[in-house]
Amino acid sequence: MSDVLALDPSAQPDLSAEDLKQLYRLMVAVRHLDESAIRWQRQGLIPGYAPELGQEAAQVGSGYALDMARDFVFPTYREMGVARTVGVDMVEYMSTHKASWHGGLYDPQAARFAPIQAVVAGSVLHAVGWAHGQTLSGTPAGELGVAITYFGDGASSQGDVHEAMNFAAVMKAPVVFFIQNNGFAISVPTERQVAGGSVAARAAGYAMPSLQVDGNDVVAVHQATAAALAHARSGNGPAIVEAMTYRRGPHSTSDDPGRYRTLAEERADGGEDPLARMRSRLLAEGLAGEDFFTEALEAAQAEEERIRNGVGALGSRPGTEMFDFVYQEPTHALKAQARAWREESEHV
Ligand SMILES: Cc1ncc(C[n+]2csc(CCOP(=O)(O)OP(=O)(O)O)c2C)c(N)n1
User: Which residues are catalytic?
Assistant: First the structure.
């Protein structure tokens, strides 16, 4: 373990006043869109959605630390806030929740944001593969693109995560494992399935550095992620960031948290609202006044309206497309499935 480098978030450059304001604007845009998406589902515009209420700081703070000219994001189904922060087209992103297309209609290569992943822990393996490709590309240390993979405390119990971390550490792959520990895997609380209570603590066993950070503090998340990215970019291999937060809403629009936790527990365990916290900081430091907060909300409302109209206008995609992007060269079995599907659904 002697060669494990510590991560020092305080060594990262301070964020400017404009950066701090931008982090707040992004969190407001994400919160407003997230809350709206639940209403869209209730109104029948989209069939389902996985809200991220309470996780805005974890997502915006980490996304804001990325260098999108060379890094690559591997999300789960709950990273709308990261997508918004790194500039993914939000209508194309939301198409997955409209069930127009699996994984979002955006171009993953151009957006540097992998398709939305519903397989728990799936994105973790993909990220390590991509990161190993960076090593093989011959890009010099210091200039490496870094893969960042998002996953939850629940996913951390999957065997895939062990394999991914071990492989990444052995091969010194430039990857940041970003865990949002939001307290729940659907109905199962963290203490029922993360032995020891911390995913970051496992890093020592893989000889990689880690940081556990207050996931409700957007600046702390940003600095921790920036430190982990700098470590990986310099050719030192992977790092873990575990953002401790709380899933304030349901697991998805088809979940009823009342079946496994009480309102009193939600109030007691929910922690600090990330937006309220940043608002207080901006006010306390004299960086923003009421006009700024009003403008941020109005911009978020206008943006949501644009996205809602775009999602409403999305048509369905040709069903044959579900076979088109499985493999570069379709297998015999896949061709047979596609044929059978066409015969049944299109009667050809
Ligand atoms: C391989 C696999 N197993 C089970 C599921 C069903 N499932 C969907 S989300 C989820 C819980 C994941 O919890 P966590 O990783 O903590 O992420 P969170 O949903 O809290 O963001 C489960 C078990 C799945 N989608 N994929």
Answer: 247, 251, 260
pLDDT at 16 over 60: yes
Closest atom of ligand 1 to CA, residue 185: 13
Using alpha carbons, select from 29, 39, 38, 96 the residue that is nearest to residue 59: 29
Evaluate whether residue 19 is within a structural domain. Answer: yes
Q: pLDDT per residue over 143-183, tens digit each?
A: 999 999 999 999 999 999 999 999 999 999 999 999 999 99
Number of domains in the chain: 2
What's the gap in Å between 266 CA and the centre of ligand 1?
20
Residues 274 and 326 in one domain: no
Give the domain extent around 337.
Answer: 318-348
| 306 and 327 housed in the same domain | no
Is 259 found in the same domain as 228? yes
Closest residue CA from atom 8 of ligand 1: 120
Q: CA-CA distance, 208 to 3, in Å (whole number)? A: 9
* Within-domain flag for 259: yes
In the numeric block, the tokens 């809403």 are attached to: 249
Q: Which two tokens mark 286?
A: 């004299």
Q: Are residues 111 and 217 in the same domain?
A: yes
- As a whole number of angstroms, the longest Cα–Cα distance in the chain is 68
pLDDT digits (tens, 9 = 90+) for 28-74: 999 999 999 999 999 999 999 999 999 999 999 999 999 999 999 99
pLDDT band of 4, cuts 50, 70, 90: low
Residue 4 resides in a domain: no
Residues 276 and 330 in one domain: no
Amino acid identity at 332: H
CATH number of the structural domain spanning residue 193: 3.40.50.970
Which residues are near ligand 1 (CB < 6 Å)?
A: 78, 118-120, 151-155, 182, 184-186, 247, 251
pLDDT at 313: 95
Ligand 1 atom with minimal separation from the 155 CA: 15
Going by C-beta distance under 8 Å and a sequence separation of 6 or more, which residues neighbour residue 217?
A: 57, 61, 274, 277
169 and 295 both lie in a single domain: yes
Pairing of β 175-181 and β 239-244: parallel
